[in-house]
Write a structure and sequence with these properties.
Number of domains of chain A: 2
Distance between the termini of chain A: 59 Å
Mean pLDDT of chain A: 84
Shape of chain B: globular
Radius of gyration of chain A: 25 Å
Strand order of the largest sheet of chain A: 1-5-6-12-11-10-7-9-8
Structural class of chain B: alpha/beta
Number of domains of chain B: 3
Number of strands of chain B: 15
CATH topology of the largest domain in chain A: BirA Bifunctional Protein, domain 2
CATH class of the largest domain in chain A: Alpha Beta
Strand content of chain B: 25-35%
Oligomer: heterodimer
Low-confidence stretches of chain A: 220-231, 404-417
Low-confidence stretches of chain B: none
Structural class of chain A: alpha+beta
Number of strands of chain A: 12
Mean pLDDT of chain B: 87
CATH topology of the largest domain in chain B: D-Maltodextrin-Binding Protein, domain 2
Helix content of chain B: 25-40%
Largest sheet of chain A: 9 strands, mixed
Radius of gyration of chain B: 26 Å
Helix content of chain A: 40-55%
Shape of chain A: globular
Number of helices of chain A: 17
CATH architecture of the largest domain in chain A: 2-Layer Sandwich
Largest sheet of chain B: 6 strands, mixed
CATH class of the largest domain in chain B: Alpha Beta
Strand order of the largest sheet of chain B: 2-3-1-4-11-5
Strand content of chain A: 15-25%
Chain lengths: 417, 331
């Protein structure tokens, strides 16, 4: 059959919203819009298309690989938005002189992620969310306020039996800072938390990968050489450089010999001690497997922190956030504290959270968010401005509401190891 | 172009895969009869109804996808580069046993600081810091882009080139290349080197089909089944020998028991046992089993240890399995 004779069907992973699904989705969106407005959020709609750079600068590889990216007729590389946060911050930066802080935004609309097309998982789905840029009171209170708002939205549309899972990225960073590791090695460990949490043979695997990436020293015998780097013999260093220069093939492309050699010297003089790396991964594994009833988990983490002489400031903040949430009437049996919680988007820096609901297909993630204090600066501001936000996946919510026996997820307090 | 009469098979008209494809089909027993190198269609005398179309390598996947050909033989790399998600074409046999090559990243020899993909990722950030961008020339933009992003390389630009890629860095329009390499010689000759983790895909010649055009036409589907069956049987036969050994025993059951107790010599399903009539009237049996090539000597020594007799080994032409995965791929 030739191309012209074939029927044209809807693209994989996309759907037409019709009939009751259409009106239910619209009414959920309306209800949330009214609720957020009452709370003082101003509405914003951003373009579907943005400069690709906006999304790749801080989102990380996991999100980048799911972007719908193409070159527009003018030759610019553009992407369909995979989320709203980057666009909202871009708007804020474009107009920051006329905006008073703190400012609360709310938004609703479709986002696009090229992911495996599985039932209930669409490549275009609708998000409703809110962002807080700037600080209202202090970090712990602001965190609680925003998480409270996310829960309030669920109640507004009659999803009472949710499960709130809270984590905090700073906890892992504080622990990693007790080891003399490079930033690259720490980022590498944090980037692999999911695997570290679930894979029992992770320490060896991850060490091997770090070695391949050149993050670790090859062997301990050469430690002395590296440790004496501060007192490096400059004439010898120059001598080595000159030998390399003379024996190097002619440089091709846009790199000069000097640039190549500078990078080579940086690469060979770096590398972390494999033992420190291994110890760090082992500790991170222990901590990111802490998951369960907040009170118990907090206590366990506090002991680990005290053992290692880490100040418990961040943990105290988490406890304050949890107390405020409790006072707001969020039952503690609907909260799981999980220090191994990570989100796919790499711009989060502090508290992160996920909202789950039980449907016939199992646990359904219907929303999530967190604090992203570094994003404003990464997108071009001179100074950092604290910010946090969350979004619901409306299409998944619709699935949950359509399920007659939407029930609470069994408390996972048994997994608090 | 659309014909209901027969099965249209597109194969390379020239280039690195032309000769091997013709030889492969000949070895399978389905030779292609091409009257001259200037004709672009041919027949397959042992499978009347199959029309062979000679096409440019780059066009074969497209011809199969749009239904102008029903099946095709093409490099797996080329197929993956062209395939559309949710499209009509599918891989029927992934590895035909020839046309092996790797799609690899090559960087200039002079980059003595770059030995792995992690280095390339770091370097792309360095380029960006200086206001530049890492430029990679390739004929496989889709596969290369996916690979780079998966490996954390977000800042790059791909230069599409269909000519001599290897010269791109020397000519200055790219910093590195991603191209097909079967031995690495071309890379070396052009002062380029591969890097650790820089193999984007490993590829062999593969058989692809348009599942819709086959599904909709019973005549074509029948021909396709026969064609796939004979190729699959030929490929299967490459893994096995037929071994016949003479053994001493009192009964055929005794021989069967021993053979079945030793998985290494029990064959695909079990031994065939026949009585051997000898002059001295003693009980000898001939046992025939199919043995994996890699386990031949192990099987021979096991057979000798009981039978104390001789063995002959022969090459198989075809192994038609009761259930063929390749045929299942067609439907």
């Amino acid at each position: 059959m030739a191309l012209t004779e074939r029927n044209i069907h809807i693209l994989k992973g996309l759907r037409d919203l019709v009939g009751s699904d259409y009106s239910r989705l619209a009414s959920i969106s309306d209800a949330l819009d009214k609720f957020f407005s009452k709370y003082g959020c101003s509405s914003i709609d951003t373009p579907l298309l943005e400069n690709t750079e906006l999304f790749i600068r801080k989102s990380g590889g996991a999100m980048t690989s799911r972007l719908y990216t193409f070159t527009d007729p003018g030759g610019q590389k553009v992407s369909l938005r995979p989320e709203f946060t980057s666009s909202v911050i871009r708007h804020f930066l474009d107009n920051k002189n006329s905006i008073n802080l703190p400012v609360r935004y709310q938004y609703a609309g479709p986002v696009f992620r090229y992911e495996a097309a599985t039932p209930g998982n669409y490549r275009q789905f609708n998000q409703v969310g809110a962002e807080l840029v700037g600080s209202i009171k202090d970090e712990a209170s602001d965190d609680a306020e925003l998480i409270g708002l996310a829960i309030g939205g669920l109640k507004e549309i009659n999803i009472d039996r949710y499960m709130l899972r809270i984590g905090h990225l700073e906890i892992l960073n504080e622990l990693l800072n007790t080891y003399p590791l490079s930033e690259a090695a720490k980022l590498f460990i944090v980037g692999n938390v999911k695997e570290i949490k679930t894979d029992p043979s992770v320490v060896d695997n991850i060490k091997k990968r770090a070695e391949i990436m050149g993050l670790l020293r090859k062997d301990s015998a050469s430690n002395e050489l590296y440790d004496s780097e501060d007192s490096r013999d400059e004439p010898t260093y120059e001598y080595i450089l000159n030998i390399l220069k003379s024996s190097m093939p002619k440089s091709l492309g846009q790199r000069t010999r000097e640039q190549i050699l500078t990078r080579l010297m940086r690469k060979t003089s770096g590398g972390d001690n494999p033992k420190d790396f291994e110890d760090a991964v082992t500790l991170i594994r222990e901590v990111c497997r802490l998951e369960g009833i907040p009170k118990i988990i907090c206590e366990k983490l506090r002991n680990i922190q005290l053992e290692r002489g880490i100040t418990t400031g961040t943990l105290d903040n988490i406890c304050t956030t949890l107390e405020i949430l409790n006072r707001q009437g969020i039952p503690s049996e609907q909260i799981i504290l999980d220090f191994g919680l990570v989100r796919d988007i790499a711009y989060y820096t502090g508290v992160i959270f996920e909202l789950n609901c039980l449907a016939k297909e199992g646990h359904v993630l219907i929303g999530g968010g967190g604090r992203y204090n570094g994003l404003v600066k990464a997108l071009g501001n001179q100074t950092d401005i604290p910010a946090l936000g969350f979004a619901y996946n409306l299409d998944r919510m619709l699935g949950v509401i359509n399920t007659p026996n939407a029930a609470v997820i069994e408390s996972e307090s048994g997994n608090d190891v | 172009m659309y014909s209901k009469s027969g099965l249209r098979l597109a194969i390379p008209s020239s280039g690195a895969l032309y000769e091997p494809t013709m030889m492969f089909l000949g070895s399978c027993g389905v030779s292609v009869l091409r009257s001259s190198t200037r004709t672009y269609t041919a027949n397959m005398p042992s499978l009347p109804g199959v029309e062979v179309m000679f096409q440019r390598m780059a066009d074969i996947s497209l011809k199969v996808e749009d239904g102008n050909a029903d099946m095709g033989i093409v490099g797996y790399d080329r197929f993956l580069e062209t395939i559309q998600e949710d499209g009509n074409s599918t891989v029927t046999i992934k590895n035909l046993g020839f046309g092996h090559c790797d799609l690899v990243i090559g960087v200039p020899d002079s980059w003595i600081d770059v030995t792995s993909v992690a280095d390339l990722s770091d370097l792309s950030m360095e380029f960006r810091g200086r206001g530049g961008v890492l430029r990679i020339a390739t004929k496989f933009p889709k596969l290369v882009e996916r690979f780079l992003i998966k490996n954390g390389i977000n800042y790059f630009s791909l230069t599409h080139s269909s000519g001599t890629l290897e010269a791109a860095p020397a000519m200055g329009y790219a910093d590195a290349i991603a191209d097909i390499s079967s031995s690495g010689t071309t890379l070396r000759d052009n002062r380029l080197k591969p890097i650790d983790g820089g193999t984007i895909i490993t590829s062999d010649a593969c058989l692809i089909s348009n599942k819709v055009s086959l599904r909709d036409d019973p005549v074509k589907l029948n021909l396709a089944n026969q064609f796939v069956d004979i190729i699959d049987a030929y490929l299967q036969s490459r893994h096995y020998y037929s071994v016949t050994a003479n053994m001493r025993a009192d009964t055929p059951e005794e021989v069967a028991k021993y053979i079945l107790d030793n998985p290494g010599i029990s064959g695909l399903r079990g031994p065939t046992i026949a009585k051997v009539y000898t002059e001295d009237g003693k009980d000898w049996f001939a046992v025939t089993v199919i043995v994996e090539k890699a386990k031949l000597m192990e099987a021979i020594s096991q057979l000798r240890s009981i039978g104390n007799g001789s063995a002959t080994v022969s090459q198989l032409y075809y192994v038609f399995q009761a259930e063929s995965l390749a045929r299942a791929n067609l439907s």
